[in-house]
Amino acid sequence: MATMRWLWRQLTSMRIALILLFLLALASVPGSLFPQRGTSPLRVSEFLKDNPTSGPILDRLYMFDVFASPWFASIYLLLFISLTGCVLPRALEHIKELRSQPPVAPRNLSRLPAHTQWQTNAETAQVISDTAAAWKKRGWQVRQGPDWVAAEKGYSRESGNLVFHLALLVLLMAVGFGGAVGYRGTVIVRENSGFANNITQYDTFAPGRMFNADQLPPFSFELNKFSATFQRGGQQSGAPREFLAELLVKSDPKSQPRPVTVEVNHPLRTSGITVYLVGHGFAPEFTIRDASGKVVWKDAAVFLPQDASFTSSGVVKVPDTVPQLGIQGFFLPTVTNDFSKGPKSIFPAADNPKVFLSAWQGDLGLDTGMPQSVYRLDTSKMQRIGKEELAPGEIWTLANSGGTVEFNGYRQWASFAITKDPGKGWALGAAIASIVGLSLSLLIPRRRAWLRVTATQDGGSLIEIAGLSKTEAPGLVDEILQLAKLVKASEEK
Amino acid sequence: MAINETLAQASNAMVYGSITAFTGAMAAFSISLAKGRRLETIEVSAQRSSGSHQVRMGSTATLDKPAVSTSMSNGEDLGEGRRAGNIGMSLTWLGTLLLGFAIIFRGLSAGRIPIGNMYEFSLAGGFAVALTYCLLSLSRDLRWLGLFITIPVLLDLGLALTVLYTESAQLVPALNSYWLAIHVTAASVCLGAFTIGAALSCLYLVAQAAEDRAAAGLEPGRSSGIAQRIPSADRLDLMAYRIHAFMFPIWTFAVIAGAIWAEAAWGRYWGWDPKETWAFITWVIYAAYLHARATAGWRGKKAAYVAIAGYSAILFNYFIVNIYVQGLHSYSGL
Predict the structure, then answer these.
(1) What's the maximum distance between 2 C-alpha atoms anywhere in chain A?
(2) One domain, residues A108 and A90
(3) A275 contact partners, CB below 8 Å, separation of at least 6
(4) Residue A60 lies in a domain
(5) A240: nearest CA in chain B?
(6) Smallest CA–CA separation between B266 and chain A, in Å?
(7) Closest CA relative to residue A274, chosen from B254, B176, B269, B179
(8) Optimal mutation site among A15, A21, A434, interface B, most CBs of chain B within 10 A
(9) Is A278 in Cβ contact with B267 (below 8 Å)?
(10) Quick check: is B162 in a domain?
(11) Which residues make Cβ contacts (< 8 Å) with residue A93, sequence separation at least 6?
């Protein structure tokens, strides 16, 4: 029992809180230096591939999941226990203090950091009551004695301090709640095609621990048009300037579609979820025919951008021909004649688009049951049957099969992040409360002031006013001067 | 929208003008500091702080002007350096104004808020340091601090022009939001004020070391030359604390404004992007500083080291994370 109490006292001491704060700062550092699974899973797998020895060790130490790691959680949980243990007793103390009266004046007022005095002939009782009234009017909490006045102000400093720390607790809970109940998914949508809010339609979907699939609101949208504009000329040529995705949105299958424009910084907010425009790219359109001229594949294939100039790569898999056909290729929105570094686009807009394709024949490997990426061709059981570059409208006849590949042009695609975070509002409220509390607790001065009247030998009396600051805020002297002026004013009346 | 090249070049010219003014100010402030002496000697400060913190105040009986005195020392006197100090102060005002106009012209040239890349943010940060200093100097004599303000401002502007310079241009879509004005302005104000806070904390350490030596009866150390020319340690400590305590809620606001913006732009209000992580680290360190100053055994020198660590985190976030670490905040323009 005694040990427990000792432990509790240690944990709730300021010293331990300080150490935990330092640990929290220190523990966050690797999260910024190593790639994190939560934000960049691809870079994590690259890192693991590049560092086969140190990678797995770092992984076991949660270096790629720092903010979800048990040691990070234990630091902030300890910190919040420490905080609660510190703040709750202080809150009780503060409530008591709010109800109590300012303390009686110390014996020797001239020892206080701000002090003034003067002789007067005024009636003591009058001075006391006038002073109490005047100080009260200025917002001080006042207590009177027969020949003294005690006053205090700035209680909201401690109130603010408590509000701030409690707001941090609420913030933590809001973050936890939102993460547990909400979800985040991403999806790529091509122009003239659509998305319905259903788990199977997402490309990636990360639900919270307590997420329930029934919670997905039945909304859907169609991407009518995507447009991007880029800087032309100058040092920053090619830098993006505007992205616009024009959608037709239905809140539920029966409702009328309404046009909505989604931009970066202007997400679509509907039925509790938010739709963000997060990326874009090109989807070249092909028509592929077999030797008889029958269309075996016709669609726009999503190609993924590889660089800032949108050199994009992708594949087309045609499983219905015998043997199966695979096309691997690059889409370049603006080609250059310099191929010394391979096919590379020189500008992100489709000024002069071309595709560079290689065709493969054999077994696509789709029947093995292993999940396959739609952006990669498994060529282990295939052989290359040729390569070609095509401008829009051009047709490539495959040498040994007699089939053809026609490059029809391109559509654009946009990728969207779709999220639901029911803790968001709470987090915002807590954040605002924390700023208000913090400002009060750091900027409101807590002060005490006293006035005492003592009889002097010549029959008059001496008024003494003194004050002290319980904080390090400036302006105590001015404040006491103001109080003295009030006393003097009522004395002269 | 096209870029107005004339305005962009005028902006650059004014940055050069501002650098010239700050260089002159730096020279004037060094002369001023070299000739100045503080009113209360190191020995007296050392005695005072080893004894009671409260000095007995005088008391008079005048009614019109009740005399109220405080335990604060009166600061220092520049003596013969007064004139050089005044010149330094005027040149600092000039440099600040020129820099302010350079920022305005830069914004006009592109028709947008000029805080869209590291060059522009550095101008804004330098301006925030200089303007905070100028405004603070209106109500108190801060000529002794001038040298320690003009040096970081000059370093910042020099880096901006040589390493970080980017042509005036339009914003990338991610930055095209009114939150840019709110979040980045708050962040640059914090950068400015925390720079002054860190300078004060460093000077406090110098003064405290000198006073400690004097209290221990040792010979003055190497840095006593500076310590003789700046206010007493307790006063510097108090000034540093006040600036940090005032800025901490604003820094909190800057981080929260960033979170609100991140929610609108990236779909989550907090995602441990490297920049966010370092903003959090900075916040935690400054929170630790405020706690340290209220904890026995941590006040004074240890707390000052914590404040300087907080400022180092800001610099790390600004230079290392912006330039070398991959993340969503990659707008350096480099």
Answers:
(1) 128
(2) no
(3) A221, A262, A267, A268, A269, A416, A417, A418
(4) yes
(5) B172
(6) 7
(7) B269
(8) A21
(9) yes
(10) yes
(11) none
Q: Which two tokens stand for residue A442?
A: 């750091």
State ipTM. 0.85
My answer on whether A275 and A189 are in the same domain is: yes
List of chain A residues whose C-beta atoms are within 8 Å of the C-beta of residue B70: 113-114, 476-477
Is the same domain home to A65 and A115? no
Asked, for residue A111, whether it belongs to a domain, the answer is: yes
User: Which residues, other chains included, contact A219 with Cβ-Cβ below 8 Å and sequence gap of 6+?
Assistant: A196, A197, A249, A250, A251, A252, A270, A271, A273
For residue A472, tell me if it sits in a domain. Answer: yes
Query: Would you say residue B70 lies in a domain?
Result: no
Expressed as residue numbers, the domain containing A292 is 283-410
Task: Using CB atoms, pick whichever of B66, B246, B271 lies closest to residue A116.
Answer: B66
CA Rg value for chain A: 36
What is the CB-side half-sphere exposure of residue A184 using CA atoms within 13 A? 15
**Host domain of residue B194:** 5-50+81-324
Quick one: A274 and A296 in the same domain? no
C-beta atoms of A421 and B253 within 8 A: no
Domains held by chain B: number: 1
Instruction: Indicate whether B68 belongs to any domain.
Output: no
- Residues A82, A108: one domain? no
DSSP class of A334: B
Residuewise pLDDT in 10s, chain A (493 residues): 788 888 888 877 888 888 999 999 999 999 988 988 877 788 888 899 999 999 999 999 999 999 889 999 999 999 999 988 888 898 999 999 888 888 888 888 888 888 888 888 888 888 899 999 999 998 899 999 888 999 999 999 999 999 999 999 999 999 989 888 889 899 999 999 999 998 889 988 888 888 887 778 888 999 999 999 998 887 778 888 889 999 999 988 888 999 999 998 999 998 888 999 989 999 999 999 988 889 999 999 999 998 888 999 999 999 888 888 999 999 999 988 777 777 788 899 999 999 999 999 888 888 777 777 888 888 888 889 888 999 999 999 988 777 899 999 999 999 999 999 999 999 999 999 999 999 999 989 899 999 999 988 888 889 999 999 888 777 888 888 888 888 888 777 6
Backbone angles phi, psi at A399, to 5 degrees: -55, -55
Q: How many CB atoms lie within 10 A of CB A200?
A: 6
A160 in a domain, yes or no?
no
Number of domains in chain A: 4
Q: Are residues A268 and A311 in the same domain?
A: no
